[in-house]
Every structure is written in structure tokens, then in C-alpha cells.
Amino acid sequence: MSIAGPAAKDADASSYSAFRDHLPSGEMVRLFDYWLELVRVNGFGIKGRIDPIELADLLPFLYLEEWDHASEQSKIRLAGESLREMWGGKSFLGAIVDEQMQGAVNDLWKRCDKANFLDQAPTLSRYNLRHRDRDYRWIWDLSLPISDADGDRFVLGIVGLCAIDGLDV
Known about the structure:
alpha+beta; Beta-Lactamase; seven-stranded antiparallel β-sheet; 7 strands; 30% helix
């Protein structure tokens, strides 16, 4: 399951508000509101304006992806401790999507990449951990497009684990 927010060219306050209504946790709402305020004031070139101190309690769940032009996929640049634990201690830093996921999850990530990096639209995804032998657990993944001062595109994201019927980040 994936929900794409409004593309940058089509975005307005009501479309962002409608997307925000789908966010499943207070942590995701907080990150989204933080991102949206920075984008409203500065446009998408906010990578250097993100203050980790303001997001300190969210850092274990945050990640940063960069667009890899050669493979036309994202690759992981930073990942919080909770994400590394979720992946069994394995580090995916520098890995592109094809090196991380297979099957339906790979397809989902690539669709989100297109929305995030090409349309500069936020996305919210939910998928299970069946590929990690934990099919009873689900991941909620909020991905927010950003860029740096040179215009290179990135995604700031937050991940939360959930049981079938609720979030337990």
C-alpha cells in the first residue's frame, strides 16, 4: 500500500492537509509538520536547514536517501539505530533499492522513489516484513522530498513498526 501526496507543482495547503490526515503516528505528523514548515518558507532546498537537535527523539527512526543517477534509484545515506536493528543489524548505507529489497517491496520502493525524487511528492507506504521472516509485523514509511543548496535531491524519512492493528514505535 502506498499513498502519494501532492506533487510539488500541484501542492497547496489543502492537499498537504489531506495527505497529513493519513499519517498513522504522532511522530510522523511531527516530522511532516516540521518538513512542511521548512518547505513553505524555503522551498525544497532545506537539507542544510534541518536541525537534528529539533528532531533528537526521532533520530533512531529517521533515514536519509540520495538519488543515484547511474541506477535511477535511491540509495541510503544515513539510517537511525532502530532501522539497523529492524534489518537485523545489517547496514544498508550506500546501497541502492535493488541491493536492499526484492519482489513487491522493491516495486513499492521504486514507485515511491519516482514520486519523491521526480515529482517531489511525499509518500506514505505500508508493507510487511515477510521478507525478514516476520510477516506478522508491518512497516509504515513516510518519505519527504528535500534537496540541497546545489539542487541535488534527497528524501528524509521516518519508519515505524506496527502490528496488524496498531503502531508500536
